[in-house]
Amino acid sequence: MSNGLHFRPTRAEIDTHALQHNARLARQHAGDCHLLGVIKANGYGHGAVEVARAINGNVDAYAVAFIDEALRLRDAGFVQPIVLLEGCFSAAELPVCAHYNLQPVVHSQSQLDAILQARLVTPLAVWLKTDTGMHRLGFAPNEVRQARAALEACPQVASVTLMTHFANAEVEDHALNQRQHDAFFDLCAETSPTPAVSAANTAAMLSRAIDLKTEQGHWCRTGIMLYGVDPSAHTQTTELLPAMRVLAPVIALRDVAAGEAVGYGSTWRAQRDSRIATLAIGYADGYPRHAPSGTPIWLNGQQVSLAGTVSMDMITVDVTDLAHVDLGDEAELWGPNLPVCRVAEAVGSISYELLCRVSERVPRHYK
Ligand SMILES: *Cc1c(COP(=O)(O)O)cnc(C)c1O
């Protein structure tokens, strides 16, 4: 913003103490395992650099999706290893990985070939991904042996960590969890000593899809937990603290007679004489455009509900039952008073999406 001026009251407050608290809890859950702090997508919308700083000391390394996200952390001065969860998109990235100690995932034959053909001054630590049933990325179990042998024989490779990813870890007794678990640990057991391995995301850590007590040296990859969300819960039930609070002020108040409609498309119609507050936040800020009327919003100590279609910069809210409301009052779209998972459920999404889609024009305020 020009002149470094920030006037807009609409904002996302990021609670760095909550991030620290959640990272400490993740650390406790991980027991003797190693912990990767997943801070892709700008730290799930919280600001990757600030999150990295807050959780530093409780995680052993960071993970992001691709190299540009990792380089931002290097530019900010972080020296810990950083895993690239999608690996490299071109061979040109490999010398940069070597130079900056970035550890790419290898999930495809072309990524494998690029490493085998590279000439690097420093060998790379790589993460070899196995597709045990999610069918998104990775080598099939019967292809892994060969890929692993090729990497281990390659002078450009310093170490190989075997990894996989669960498709349903947040559903405690999903049949695929056991199948993926067994397929993966059978592969790991093929050599001794067992290689470095990584399978658990937050949901697997919390649900014990993997018994972390017997998995010393396992690398847990924890993301959503750091931000205060339990991926398997539909309410804020755990001891986790929400790290993001999104706030927007009331910028207009009006009375709307029974029978009148509000907003684009006139999708919400007053069933009684109603009071409508307009808030300065919309889909350009990342508030979901498809949020239906009735989606909860927190205002002046009470829950109120969205009334009408979400606009680009504004939403309208039914405040008829509020004891008091004034221009300038601040509503919480989600945060400590209104768990993001509740909003996600109302709009047919997940907490992850709401958090990481808060757009750049919403200033982050750190405390
Ligand atoms: C994003 C991601 C994670 C983190 O998942 P959470 O559910 O946020 O803990 C772990 N592993 C991989 C491969 C990922 O892409």
Mean pLDDT: 95
Uncertain runs with pLDDT below 50, 5 residues or more?
Answer: none
Helix fraction bin: 25-40%
So what's the overall shape?
elongated
Q: How much of the polypeptide forms β-strand, as a percent range?
A: 15-25%
CATH top level of the largest domain is Alpha Beta
Bound molecules: pyridoxal-5'-phosphate
How large, in whole angstroms, is the Cα Rg? 23 Å
Count of helical regions: 11
Distance N terminus to C terminus?
21 Å
Q: Sheet bearing the most strands, described?
A: 8 strands, parallel
CATH architecture label name of the largest domain:
Alpha-Beta Barrel
Helix and strand string, N-terminal first?
EHEHHEHEHEHEHEHEHEEEEEEEEEHHE
CATH superfamily of the largest domain: Alanine racemase
Structural classification: alpha/beta
Q: What can you see in these coordinates?
A:
- The chain has 367 residues and is α/β, with parallel strands linked by helices.
- The protein has two domains: 197 residues, Alpha-Beta Barrel (TIM Barrel); 123 residues, Lyase, Ornithine Decarboxylase, Chain A, domain 1.
- It has eleven helices and 18 strands.
- The strands form three sheets. The chain has an eight-stranded parallel sheet. A six-stranded antiparallel beta barrel has the order 10-13-16-15-14-17.
- Strand 15 and strand 16 form a beta hairpin.
- The chain is elongated.
- The mean pLDDT is 95.
- Pyridoxal-5'-phosphate (PLP) binds next to helix 9 and strand 9.
